Amino acid sequence: MKDKLKPLIKEAKKTAQRAIHQHLVVQLKEITLKFSEGSKKLDKKIDKEAKKLARKFAKDIKIDKEALLKDNTVAKTPEAASAPKAPAAPKAEAPAKPAAKKAAAKPTAE
Fold this sequence. Notes:
There is one protein chain. The chain is an all-alpha fold. The chain has one domain (2-81). 64% of the residues lie in helices and 0% in strands. The longest helix is centred in the first third of the chain and has 34 residues, at 2-35. The model is unreliable at 77-87 (pLDDT under 50).
């Protein structure tokens, strides 16, 4: 039971860390845009520092082990596994690259 619990706790903490990081970045970028123009350097610094802070906060988070086990057992039931999943969110499209031109076929002499 303990070996099943450890990965679940680790995943829950990582999920919490990602959520904290995303919220910090959004809030900090909004605040900085009020006072100055955004820049790549500033955005990179915000992202880096928010990641550090989120990591510190996530370490101190206490995960309810009983609720985690309860949620995990509910999710692993056959009915839940066969339920249709929501479609994945579409990814941002990359800029279209110009198609490479094909060379004209050379006539062969027969």
